[in-house]
Amino acid sequence: MASYPHYFLISFLLLAIAPLTSSFQVNRPSAKQVISAPWRASAKESRYSLHIVAATKDDGSSDNKMSSDVEEYRNAPTAFLANFMQSDNEDTKVDPLADIDFDAPKSPNLGLEVLAAVLDAELYDKEWFVTGRVNPIYFDDKFQFQDPDVKLTGVEEYARGVLKLFSADSRAQIISCVVNTTISNTITITWRLSGRVNIGPKGLPIKPYICYTDFTVDEESGLVAFQEDKFDIPGWDILLSALFPFLIGKVTSEPAPEVEPRVVEMPVISGGKKGGIFGGLFQQLGL
After folding, report:
1. Which run of H or E residues covers position 194?
2. 10 Å Cβ neighbour count for 217?
3. Which stretches does DSSP call E strand in 11-131?
4. Tell me: the pLDDT tens digits for 123-168?
């Protein structure tokens, strides 16, 4: 007869796997239309959205600046797992994102091609998909992230959500950041996720896998208004690989290959110097 811990584990698996296996499918462009890479040939046509959760205090309120404000948990398992969220920053009062000005003036409309190149350089350097060190100047004030489990509004809330979710040794290695040729006003980032999620006292390991992030860009302002993250493996594969690493390569898929390093430079804007979108203005001022 199974012991109580076994019943708990089975219940946990059923709760966690159910929403992942029933997530809606999203039709994706072919690999050649987004990025050409030999190991992408086996990527599934259906992707699964990233879960971003934030812990709350006992009275139901969230920590002021050290956690994100999730507007809505869209299923019970996600809300349940949020109670087990840990943070690498819980033992300190220092805000890791304190140096980011979330009210900074917005970038001018750069156009999709230039914006994609700028975001490529920024993301390659800061890996904000796991660090939270986002550059707010490229995001609309009403920026939204939504998936079948979580809904939130605001780039700061998103940044604090991923900071809370991923451990400090997690990586978001950018493979490409290009204008999507099949979805209008969209920039697609392909990247490799690895590290740990802060669930439980030691966190859960992440078997490296490939993620696809679609940035929907407002045509008038040129700012990112919406983000959707999808994976190249199903949720049950991610979960089983985290809980039972000995199944990797046997029951679950192999880890995604290492990412080849690239030389990524910030593009020159308006004939200015490298290193920022306002380089042209600085050059005109003789700086």
Report:
1. strand 186-197
2. 25
3. 72-73
4. 999 999 999 999 999 999 999 987 656 778 999 999 999 999 899 9
